[in-house]
Amino acid sequence: MAGGIGSRFWPISRNARPKQFLDILGTGKSFIRHTFERFAPIVPAENFLVVTNRVYRDLVLEQIPEIKECQVLCEPVGRNTAPCIAYAAFRLMSVNPEADMIVTPSDHLILNEAEFVHAIDEAMEFVRSHNVLMTIGIRPTRPDTGYGYIQVDGEQDNNTGAIHRVKTFTEKPNIELARAFVESGEFVWNAGIFLWKAAGILEAMRTMLPEMYQQFAAISDCYGTSRESECIERVYSECRSISIDFGVMEKAENVYVRCSDFGWSDIGTWGSLYSYSKKDDHGNVVRGEGMFYDTHDSIVMMPEGKLAVIEGLNDYIVVDSGNVLMICPKKNEQNIKKFIDDAKFHKGERYT
Amino acid sequence: MAGGIGSRFWPISRNARPKQFLDILGTGKSFIRHTFERFAPIVPAENFLVVTNRVYRDLVLEQIPEIKECQVLCEPVGRNTAPCIAYAAFRLMSVNPEADMIVTPSDHLILNEAEFVHAIDEAMEFVRSHNVLMTIGIRPTRPDTGYGYIQVDGEQDNNTGAIHRVKTFTEKPNIELARAFVESGEFVWNAGIFLWKAAGILEAMRTMLPEMYQQFAAISDCYGTSRESECIERVYSECRSISIDFGVMEKAENVYVRCSDFGWSDIGTWGSLYSYSKKDDHGNVVRGEGMFYDTHDSIVMMPEGKLAVIEGLNDYIVVDSGNVLMICPKKNEQNIKKFIDDAKFHKGERYT
Questions:
Q1: Given this model, what pLDDT does residue A272 score?
Q2: Which one, A172, A326, B295, B325, has least CB within 10 Å?
Q3: For residue A312, which residues of chain B lie inside 8 Å, CB to CB?
Q4: For residue B51, what is the enclosing H or E element?
Q5: Is A312 in Cβ contact with B316 (below 8 Å)?
Q6: Does this complex have an ipTM over 0.90?
Q7: How many CB atoms are located within 10 Å of the residue A125 CB?
C-alpha cells in the first residue's frame, strides 16, 4: 500500500513526492525501497503488487525497477485501505484463486529484518493451515497515543506460540488508556500488516462490506485486462472510503495476531522521527550541515549543501525543503495539517 | 566608498556580494545605486569616483552603468577610510587641482533626498568660501550606541546657520553617555559624509598622516596612467589601516559640521533594518512570503518564491539566503561575526 501523501512530514513530503518515496531517515533508500527489500527474500519480485495513486506510478517504478508496470495498481483517488485491499485481492484471485496475500504499508521503519521475516513466516504458516485473518502486533515499549492497539486473548496456547486470537481492535487511545493498555500486558500495537488467503479476505468482505464487495466483484472480468483501469475508475468513483480495520478486522470472528518485537515504528510524525534518530551531545537531530548555539532537543532537516546556523531554539522542528521553510515547536507538530491548509488557502497549491 | 563587506548582514551579504550591492530594504535598488541617484542631480556622472576592492569592480559597473571603468578605483586590500580618501583625492588632483570633493559611504539609508541635497549644497558652498573640512551631522532622535557622535560648538553664528565648528569627535558611546549626549543638545551623529577641497584634505593629511601622505604623493606621476594599478598595489601593501576620523578629523582645527535632519541610518545591523522597516500587526518585518503563528517582533528574510511557516518565535532574526539558513534571537545579533568565523573555520569558505 503506497497511496498516502504523508502530510505530517510536510514540507519535506509533498503531494508530488510523499513520504513512502522519501529517505526521511537518511538511510540512503526510500521507505518503499526498504519495504521491497525486506520482503524480497520471501516473495518473488513478480508476485509484488503495489497499490498507489496513479500520479505516483512512475515513482513506484523508479524505486522498484524489479517490478513490471502491470504490478502497479493505480487508484484514481484514495479511498482508505479497504478498497485498496479489495482491488489487490481481486487482481490476485484473477491470477491464482489459491493465492496467499501479505498486506503492508510502505512507509514504516523496521529495525530487525531477520526477526521480521521470522514473524511473517510463522504468521503465513498459520494462515495456510487455518482459515484466519492474521495481523502483526508489536509488543508496546511505551504508552504511545499515536497508534491503534489490539487486545489479545490472554489464554496462552502452546500450539500457536506468539500467535493469539484477537479480542478487540481499538482506535488511538488517550494517554491514561494507553498506560492502562501497556500495564495490562494484554495489548499490542497494530502495525497495519495483514496476512490471509486472498479468498479469505474477500469472503470476509462479502459478509462485512457487501456493497463494496459487489462493486469490485462486478468487474471480475476486467482484472488483468486492458479494461481494468477504466473499470477501477468507475468503482472508485462510487465506493465508500473505509479502513480494513474498521470495515472488517474489528467485526470478523477469525482474527489472529502474531505478537512481535522486531523494532517497529510507523515514523508518523517529526516527533517519532526525532525519537528514532541519533542525537548529538545536545539532543539535536540534524540532517545536513549545522552549527548550533544554545540549541537543544531540536530536529533540523536541511537540504544538501545548505548550512543551518541556529541560536536559541529548544525543542523545535526546523525543516528547510524546496520552496518552504518551516519552524515550529516540537510539541505543536499536530499544527502541520493546519499549516498545509493555510498555505493552500492563502498561498496556493505550489507549497503543498 | 564601496569597499566594505557588510558582514553584519550575513548570510544575505557575502564576500562575493556585500551589503552596498544588495537591496536589503526591498526598495528595488541596491544601496550603491540609491547613493549614485541621490548625488546625480548635483554631480555629473563623469565626476564620480568609486573606491572599492578590486573584486567588486564589475559589481560597481553593473550597478552604475553611467560611469566608466577608469572611474572605479580598485583597492587590492581594505585599509579603512584614510587610504581610500587619499587615493581618491590624489586621483582628483591629477585631473583638477582645484577639485571640490564629497566623500560618502555607499550603503546608508537617506529618507528625505531633497533635504539631503539642500544640506550638501549648503555645506559645499561653505567649503568653497572657507578653508575647512566639513562633515555632515545628524540630529539624534535616540541615544543610539551604534554611532559615533560629534560635539558642536554651542555658539550660534547667524552667518553659518546649521553649520558649526566641531569641538570633538567621539567613538561609539555606552548607553549612559549616549543619553547624556542627546540630552545636552550639543551632539550630532557622525554620518561619515565629508566635503572639502581635494587639496584641503591632502594638506591636512600631509600634516597629520605624513607617512601615508608621502606614500601616495610618491606615485603622483602614476594617477590616471596605465601604471596606477601597480603603484597602488605597492602603496597599499605598505600603508597603515586607519580611519579618516581618527587620522585627521579628530585632530584638525578647521573642522565644521552641517547639522541635518534628512532621515538617516547606516542600516548597520539586522536590528536597525528592523527599526526602519514596516511591521505587520504583530510587529514582524517580513521580506517574501510568510505565515506566522504565535510569532512577534521578528524579522524574516526569505528568498523569492519561498514560503516561511513559523510558529512560536518572538524577537528572532530568520534569514534564508543562498546556502545558509540563520536563526538567532534579535538581541544576540552581535554573534553573527562569530557565526561567520565558525562557519569559515568548521565548514569552509563556501558559506562566507
A1: 87
A2: A172
A3: 316, 327-329, 332
A4: strand B50-53
A5: yes
A6: no
A7: 12
* Residue B102 backbone zone (phi > 0: left; psi -120 to 50: alpha; other: beta): beta
**Looking at residue A26, what is its pLDDT?**
84
Q: What is the pLDDT of residues A112-122, one digit of tens each?
A: 999 999 999 99
Instruction: Answer yes or no: are the C-beta atoms of A21 and A30 closer than 8 Å.
Output: yes
Name the pTM for this structure.
0.84
User: B342: Cβ–Cβ under 8 A, 6 or more apart, which residues?
Assistant: A291
Inform me whether the pLDDT recorded for B262 exceeds 70: yes
Contacts of residue B160, Cβ cutoff 8 Å, sequence gap at least 6: B126, B256
Work out the minimum CA distance from A335 to partner chain B, whole angstroms.
9
**What SS3 class is residue B311?**
strand
Task: Enumerate the residues of chain B whose CB falls inside 8 A of the CB of residue A323.
Answer: 305-307
Contacts of A307 in chain B (CB under 8 A): 323-325, 343, 347, 351
Residue B309 to residue B302: CA distance in whole angstroms: 11
Shortest Cα distance, chain B CAs vs residue A266, angstroms: 25
